[in-house]
Specification:
Elements lengths: L2 H7 L40 H13 L4 E5 L2 H8 L8 E4 L5 H14 L2 E4 L5 H7 L4 E7 L11 H11 L2 E5 L4 H4 L9 E5 L13 E5 L2 H14 L5 H11 L2 H20 L4 E5 L9 H7 L6 E6 L2 H11 L4 E2 L9 E3 L11 H6 L6 E5 L5 H12 L3
Parallel strand pairs: 2-3, 2-4, 4-5, 5-6, 10-11
Antiparallel strand pairs: 1-7, 6-7, 8-9, 9-12, 11-12
Amino acid sequence: MHFETLAIHDGQTPDPYTGSVTVPLYQTSTFERPSLDERGEFFYSRIGNPTRSALESTLALLENGRHGTTFASGVAAMMGALQVLKPGDHVVSSLDVYGGSYRIFEQLMRPWGVETSYAASEATESYLDCIRPKTRMIWLETPSNPLLQISDIRALAAIANERGIVLAVDNTFASPYFQRPLDLGAHIVVHSTTKYLGGHSDVIGGAVITSDERLHHTIRNYQGAAGAIPGPWDCWLVLRGVKTLKIRMEEHQKNALHLARALEKHPAVERVIYPGLASHPQHELAKSQMSGFGGMLTIALKSGLPAVRKMLEATKLFIIADSLGGVESLVASPALMTLGPLSREEKQRRGCTDDLVRLSVGLENAEDLEADLMQALATI
């Protein structure tokens, strides 16, 4: 079946008790046992809940995986995926990663005994140069945040399989509609369901998808033991969002490409970073592993941070806010917001310069969004 059919139906069949066409909200902490010596599929909501199970099944199907495990946030999902490691293991990560991911590697995993090295660039050779005898995971963010760099999932999957390394891919920016890393050879896919999967800026959540039974057992055991689970209402909101993922992603992409082309011509803009543009250095690679390019784009302004401040303070439709992937358009300064806690040296190392502006392009009319950006750029 096609993606949009799966998103609406698979894992979300009508309720057998009432005929409800939407998955019921099982707002309960516990379930009655048939007897003292028996328990049903569901007995305590930290371990399992029917609403959560429906979401996990749906997300696994959309990623073409066998198992989905959901968490209370994207970073909680990342911690779930990292439980397949043990002290003494080594990780090779993309250099340009979400600030929360970097904090997990450096502030949580490193003291626990798991060391992370960062590939100097998105080139496959850069990852290869970082691999050690104790490397047990390659962590990719592609497209990356905020520089929208593309890593070659197929090539890195071949290297990982050859060396017995787990390849994990944060697929949040692309969503399963535009990219399916498991089909390209990855072993684990991670999402912040807060973003495009939820799609309405009204829920926090995360998910891990895999087809590997051993990896799934470890991740699922961590979910139940650590308890960083999404509540049934959160799961229900993401289930609602997933049903419209196809049409939202298509519109996000259409608007983002329209703005990227317009911004490329603006005299105040030094460069536009969007994988859907032929000017993107990895445009062909993006085309080879993605069916679309998403709704995120980043620009660099010629006049640096003063221009960034003026632009962000002048936008009317674009809202200055953290996060991304909602129906409304958001704008951010990566250097001051999403990667603000990092040292200047660390930001410079990863290419997060003061002149960058990250745009999460929403579903408003493209001409209205363009007019808003142009009037804001006129103030600098």
